[in-house]
Design brief:
Elements: E1 13-17, H1 26-40, E2 44-48, H2 55-69, E3 72-77, H3 79-92, E4 95-100, H4 106-110, H5 117-126, E5 128-132, E6 135-137, E7 140-142, E8 145-149, H6 150-165, H7 169-181, E9 187-193, E10 196-202, E11 204-208, H8 211-217, H9 222-227, E12 231-236, H10 241-252, E13 262-267, E14 269-274, E15 284-289, E16 292-297, E17 300-304, E18 309-313
Parallel strand pairs: 1-2, 1-3, 3-4, 4-18
Antiparallel strand pairs: 5-18, 6-7, 6-17, 8-11, 8-15, 9-10, 9-14, 11-12, 12-13, 14-17, 15-16
Helix pairs in contact: 1-5, 2-3, 6-7, 7-10
């Protein structure tokens, strides 16, 4: 494993702040960050998303500055913001920090980073870089999950619901049901690993890197993710709309893993290609990484990243299960 990034004394923070994330006031978040850094004597550079400034560009700038000055590139926002900064930090070997502002905050919770801004700031300002596992799909990092098919479409359409009704858990659940009622297609996929290939017919392939998310839906393979060195996948067998709605309800109750129409497995690296027939000819597909949907070329290569993500957190941090 490579050495941890060296932080300068009073390591400066380079924060990418997404004003559109979370339910609180962005101005209050900014003021809290500025006040905490002032009190700790830590230099701060804030890069605010908006007015034509895209998150990936700001993330790259934050990482470049952090590397040059022995500082920390920090994401203050939801999953999309965290993913963008983490992707840049992972590739560069830069120290990475999180001030979670999202709806579910799976990544920060599994690493014991509290949601209240004052508490997450204290964790960041008193923490040290520690290696944590990231996943990759076609070299794009993901911290929580990556998916194609129905789940990716659910995430894409969920953003419209959030814009109309707010960023709450019941809104996400209602958006999922609305997507299911529209209908969905079945994919035929060749999944290759270790010299062998299996054919999956499924409306969605979900690959996770977050033990807490698997635990909450009741899939045991999440334990392999928590132990480290593996990702876990879920594929649903072909189903009708009512049966699929039933599976969504089972997931909400934490009983998805016991359903007969659910296949799950763990791996370190797989390659996914559209099989001859129903899905053949599709060279580019929509893939969601930590909730952000983008086009990717087939085949899709999912793997545990060979590089650690150097997350700044306290040594005594405990995962939040609630």
């Amino acid at each position: 494993m490579p050495a941890a990034p060296a932080l300068a004394p009073a390591a400066p923070l380079f924060v990418v702040l997404n004003r559109g994330s979370g339910r609180g006031s962005a101005d209050e978040t900014r003021q809290a960050i500025e006040a905490a850094c002032r009190a700790a004597g830590r230099p701060l550079t804030l890069r605010v998303v908006g007015q034509g400034r895209r998150v990936p560009d700001l993330a790259r700038e934050a990482v470049e500055s952090a590397l040059a000055q022995g500082g920390i590139a920090v994401a203050a926002g939801g999953d999309g913001t965290i993913n963008a900064v983490a992707h840049a930090a992972l590739r560069a070997g830069c120290a990475f920090g999180v001030l979670p502002q999202g709806t579910f905050n799976y990544f920060s919770r599994v690493h014991g980073i509290p949601a209240p801004i004052e508490e997450s700031l204290q964790s960041l300002l008193t923490g040290t870089p520690q290696p944590v596992q990231a996943g990759e799909v076609n070299d794009r990092a993901f911290l929580v999950n990556a998916s194609l098919g129905l789940y990716a479409r659910m995430l894409e359409e969920r953003e419209d619901f959030k814009a109309r009704f707010g960023r709450r858990r019941w809104v996400a659940f209602g958006a999922a049901l609305a997507t299911l009622l529209k209908g969905f297609r079945t994919w035929t996929l060749n999944v290759s690993a270790g010299g062998g290939t299996q054919v999956l017919r499924t409306p969605t392939l979900f690959v996770g890197n977050n033990a807490l998310q698997f635990e909450q839906v009741g899939v045991e393979e999440g334990q392999a993710v928590e132990d480290g060195g593996a990702l876990a996948a879920i594929a649903l067998e072909p189903l009708g709309r009512l049966a699929m709605i039933g599976l969504v309800l089972r997931a909400a109750l934490g009983r998805l893993g016991s359903a007969s129409k659910v296949r799950s497995f763990t791996f370190r690296e797989i390659e996914v290609q559209a099989a001859t027939g129903a899905s053949s000819g599709r060279r580019r597909v929509r893939v969601a990484t930590d909730g952000e949907v983008q086009w990717m070329d087939m085949p899709l290569r999912f793997r545990v990243s060979p590089r650690p993500l150097w997350l700044v957190k306290r040594l005594d941090a405990k995962a939040e299960r609630a």
